[in-house]
Amino acid sequence: MQVHFKNCLKGFLFLLLVLSPWSVVRSPSLRAEIIEQVVAVVNNDVITRYDLDRAMAPLAKQKNAEGLRRQILENLVHQKLLEQEVTKAAIEVTNEDLQRAVAGILHNNGITIDILRSELSSKGITFDAYKDQIKEQIRQAKFIQQNLAPQVQVTAQDVQNFRRRHQLEDAANQKVKLAWIFLPWEEEAGDKAKREQVEEARELAEKLRKGEDAKKIAKKYPRTERTLWTDELTPELSEAASKMAAGEIGDPVTTPQGVYVMELKERYESGAAEGKAGNLSDEEVYQRLFNERLDQEIHNYVLRLRKKAFVEMRTAD
User: Fold this and answer.
1) pTM to 2 decimals?
2) Where are the chain's structural domains?
3) Mean pLDDT of the chain, nearest integer
């Protein structure tokens, strides 16, 4: 099985190319305003409140976002420790490396270089500053490839064990065609509002069962139809789908996000023969196992760095 480290790291390196092209560089003016608000010291470097708030931004709408703040700070500390080791390694990034990365970003975001420059400029970020950030990410990927990837081993027996382990799971996993209408909870909805929304979903399900005007319903309630595997569904939806017959419109299904009115259009009795793990080639299984073990190797490496480092955690609030 000829799989090289460079190929196994393809997924890791690919992250550089699918990042939102203007999400990786900080606006200097905003950072300057709060640089003095240090939330952690890591050896000779600091992590500011700006760094933490920026890392928290994608989680802002989650109800438990503030509860994750400490964990996000821990992650930033670990990232800083790794960055420090990468800096000490003095790894070269060539112009070819940079050009390939930028070309990949343009391709995967479907934009031109002019659009990229315009978007960066609108956020007060220079193209040179952006390229410097991309260089740092390439440098980190090279460091991992050179120093940590060689520690990861995956054998042919590991591949076979993976297949056996997933055989039963694939047998239970089914492909289904579903159609659903989703009624999201209103922001900060109370118990009464949620009960009313469930009742609305129940009435909607009854109308659909009676064959009332589907077009009229669709104008008010957007409908989604997809073919997918049951293990891709939330536990609530997967359980509901397992109890439904083809053509049945089920009772409303409540989830943490809202209420679903779901119809099982078709069930494909695929079983293990078409299971997802069964569809993977030996090389794909190898790469999947390699990447999982590489993630663990990186985590263990950073923990070893943490034991030797000076880390002072300040308030994350």
Assistant:
1) 0.58
2) 5-155+282-313, 175-268
3) 81
